[in-house]
Structures are given as C-alpha cells and as structure tokens.
Amino acid sequence: MAGDPYKELGVSRSASQDEIKKAFRKLAKELHPDKNPGNTVADERFKRITAAFDLIGDPEKRAKYDRGEIDADGREQFRGGGFAGARGGPGGFQGGRAAFDNIDLDEIFGMFGGAAGRGGAGRAGPMRGQDVRATLEISLEDSIAGATRRIQFSDGRTLDVVIPKGANDGQTIRLRGQGSPSRNGGEAGDALIELKLGAHPVFTRDGADLTMDLPISVPDAVLGGKVQVPTPEGAVVMTIPAGSNSGKVLRLKGRGAVADGRRGDLKARLVVTLPESPDEALVKFAETWRAQRPYKPGG
User: Fold this and answer.
1) CATH number of the 5-112 domain
2) CB-neighbour burial class of residue 252 (10 A; exposed 0-12, middle 13-18, buried 19+)
3) 3-class DSSP state of 94
4) Tens place of pLDDT per residue across the chain (299 aa)
5) Which of 78, 81, 82, 98 lies closest to 90, judged by CA?
6) 91, 58 Cβ separation under 8 angstroms
7) Best CATH choice for the domain 204-292 from the list 3.50.30.30, 2.40.30.20, 3.40.50.2300, 2.60.260.20
8) Quick one: which H or E segment has residue 63?
9) Which residue ranges does the record assign to the J domain (predicted)?
10) Class assignment of domain 132-197?
C-alpha cells in the first residue's frame, strides 16, 4: 500500500496545486531512472512520487482522498451501503503509468530523451546523441562553384564538408551521424554546419549581385576599348563605350553571386584613372585640350 502522498512529495496538506506541481518537478528531475542508472532505491522512490503526484496533483482525486473516499492507492473506501470494491480509481496509478493532465511532462522528461519510464515501470530506450553546431567560413568562389573544405571541432575531430554549387550565405548543411555519440547505444547526433560567406577583396555583395570598381585609362574612357574584368570564375573581356565617365556602371549578366538559387549579375563601376606620374606627352595634351576646348564638368 502506498504511503501518505503529501509526505512522499514533501508538502503540507494545505499546499497549493502549484506548490505540489513544483515539488514533483524537482523530485522527478532528481530521481528519474535515466539519471540514476542501476540505482534501485532511486527507481523505487521515483515510482512512489509519481503515484503520489497522480493522486494529489489532480484536484478532483485530491479532494476525494482528503475526504477519505479513496485511499493512497486510489481505491475506493467502505461506504455506508457496503464495500464498493477494491479497484483502481479513475486515472489511478495503474500498471505503473499515470495520467498527468495538469503538468507538461515534456518539461521534466525531455531532458532524459523521452517519456519512457514516466510511471517508473519501464526504462527509456537508447537515446540519440546530441547534434553539434559549427560555422564554416567559405569564399565567394566556393559558394558559386562548390568545394570541399575541412572543419575542426573543439574535441579535435575533423570533418570534410562538401559545399554544394550555388550555396547561400547562412545555409546549413546537415551531416548525418557526425554529431555527439549516444551514451547508451543509440544513434549518434548530426553535425549542423552553417556556411558563412567571407568578405572578398574585390567584390561587394548586394543580394545576388556583385559590385566592383573597375579602373580604366583616360584613352579608354575617351576613345573606348576592350579591357579585362575579373569575375569569380576568372577574367573576361568587356567593351568600354567611348566617352565613358567615372561612375558609369556596366553589367555582366550571370556573373554575380548566388542567392535563393538565383545567379545575379556583376556590376562594374568605371573609375577613370590617371597614371601616378603623368608623362610629358599627357601633360602637354591636357594643356592643349584645356586651352582649345574648355568645358565645365557636369555642364
């Protein structure tokens, strides 16, 4: 026969339902079989506090117990008309399981890998190992063309991570079974690798598009010409229109970054650039031009 449920939970008979619930939470976390493997004393104590909470954690059954209508096992007591029968009360602790209608058991048992053993009659099955998370910085070129990069975890393990073509900044790659091992023979957790796109020395990302400054010479700006333009996949030739000023933007379709499965464009902003030490011919040309064809920029 079960003992006094109030004493089992360490609360007074005048305790509120919230106080009873808090007391059970505290004891359940301390005594759960998965936290005390092989400890028969803790296992038996866990069964008793579970049965106690099933009784007085339910306001209706608690009231019946307090009035003496049911005993600590949830069985009905003798009444004036005779013996009502020794049977488990509604929702009683039958077969080692309880109907905890007024408490979130996931809060208590989730930390042990599931609800197994709630009634203390069974043992939890093999628990899956925990997932591990890490961040891997990749280059713009890696995100576009794909690559294999190695990552090292804090425990010293290394993994080769295959970066798919068209990977996005912030994308997470799941490596099945590469997380923490199970502590009791279950499957290992997963490794979740978040991809972080590093800064590029030439290109600036704007969504799926890339922007860059493209220095051009004065003759190319005035007369037009063909110049080489760097892209993530190597240099290509671009035609500069005659009469191009600094700030003019030329677009290379489909040569940008990747975002949401879409390949953007490369936008080249022209920067007319003088040599660091202008030679005599350039100086003379500029003097003649200024004298013969004065103009006001922007006019």
Assistant:
1) 1.10.287.110
2) middle
3) strand
4) 567 899 989 999 999 998 999 999 889 888 887 777 778 888 888 888 888 888 898 898 899 888 888 888 777 765 443 333 333 333 333 333 344 444 545 445 544 544 444 444 444 567 888 899 999 999 999 999 999 999 988 778 899 999 999 898 889 999 999 988 888 788 989 999 999 999 999 999 988 999 999 999 999 999 999 999 999 999 999 999 999 999 999 999 999 998 877 899 999 999 999 888 878 888 888 888 888 877 777 65
5) 98
6) yes
7) 2.60.260.20
8) helix 59-67
9) 4-69
10) mainly beta
| CA proximity to 210, closest of 264, 261, 142 | 264
The domain ranges of the chain are 5-112, 132-197, 204-292
Structural contact between residues 159 and 219, judged by C-beta atoms closer than 8 angstroms: no
Residue linked to tokens 């049977």: 87
Q: What is the distance between the alpha carbons of residues 220 and 226, in angstroms, rounded to a whole number?
A: 8
Q: Does the global pTM surpass 0.70?
A: no
Token pair in block for residue 96: 């080692």
